[in-house]
Amino acid sequence: MTWSYATHYVCDGCAKPFELHRPLNTCPDCGGLLEVRYDLGRMKRELSPGMFASRVPSMWRWHEFYPLRDAANVVTLGEGGTPLIRSVYAGRQLGLPELYFKNDALMPTGSFKDRGFSLAVSFAKELGIKRGLTYSSGNAGSSFAAYASRAGIEAAVLVEYLANPLKKSMIGLYGAHTATLHFESMNDITAMLAEAVQRLGLYQFVNFINPVRHEAMKSYAYEIAQAFDWKAPDVMVHPVGTGGGIWGAWKGFGELLELGWTDSVPRMVAVQPDATGPIVRAFRQGSRTAERYGDSTKTIAQSIAGDAPIQKGERVLSAVYDSGGFAETVTDSEILEAMRWLGNEGIAAEPASAASLAAVKKGVEQGRIRSSDRVICVITGTGLKQPSATQQAVPESELKLNADFGQLSELLAKLWN
């Protein structure tokens, strides 16, 4: 059995190919981002959708679609295969009978980042990498730390100063070296990391600078299409920081279409906070590149608060434009409302995750999402990671009583009548 059908890298910038199992981050010739290519023709001849049904329902069910060559190098905590939950509350409010939530808040470290780091750390292990670095607003650092510890890779995480204390502590709990990173713009971070690649030869795990992390996000497409008997949804909504999630999912749906396993692709919707939405601003201007925009300190959606996307957001904007989708911003008040709505679904989502549902609401109001659409909202992280925001969404009850039947009876009458 062929474990992987990956063949080589291709640079986004100069289009040069590179051997897949070199320890590369960005293109050694021009500094562009690298993309993994696959032998889809051979995959079409040798693979079929039915062969995956009996495999363990995890991200690694789809190993042929990743660049890892040897199963012995897989580093896993049980990521992927998360539930696809049909809405019982928000869908009714919005007139969307086929609204679903892909709940990655249930991942091992509490966020969708576990998909990417399971693959990226496994691949690094296969390359013989012993040390690695990433930047994080919180969730990525926790995930990297956990998987690096499992793989025996020494991890260093630069945690942005805006990250909440719980997320910082979790990174240390999983065993990584941490330092708080101060900066004025994401452009400063990108420049610093690029110089570290060139001058230190340091292997990095930052989204897109690491060329394989987003490949794992293709599993969204495979899991969702399989759940619908190999039909793609009409709309997929994803919160966007650097954009590895939406780009990986879009690539996955494109592969399924090319293989002939599905006959359509979803319209991809990129969501950012109103305080800092460079992708949305570029989309509204009709541009395929995004410039620095906004203030990362002015939103509760920490995980998607970046003001300047990597490679000017070209990949994310391509996913949006090429799919016929759209990009939208949401305010903190809209996010808090979405958090409460998700609570009625039985889902505790952090603000960045709830942004996806807030964008669906706006999309319905604007006529961009129709009542007949099958819509997928990705829930990228648990609300337990950002407890202060959860408390802001739903403050503690002011009702009180003593352990007295009379008081209990009076309270219940007040609550239920």
UniProtKB/TrEMBL annotation:
The EC number(s) this enzyme carries: 4.2.3.1
Family from the record: Belongs to the threonine synthase family.
NCBIfam families with a match to the protein in the record: PRK08197.1, thrC
CDD domains documented for this protein: Thr-synth_1
Name of the protein in question: Threonine synthase
Protein source organism: Gordoniibacillus kamchatkensis
Record keyword Lyase present: yes
Domain Tryptophan synthase beta chain-like PALP span(s) in chain numbering: 75-381
Lineage of source species: Bacteria, Bacillati, Bacillota, Bacilli, Bacillales
Keyword hit for Nucleotide-binding: no
Cofactor: pyridoxal 5'-phosphate
Keywords annotated in UniProt: Lyase, Pyridoxal phosphate
InterPro entries per UniProt: Ser/Thr_Dehydratase, Thr_synthase-like, TrpB-like_PALP, TrpB-like_PALP_sf
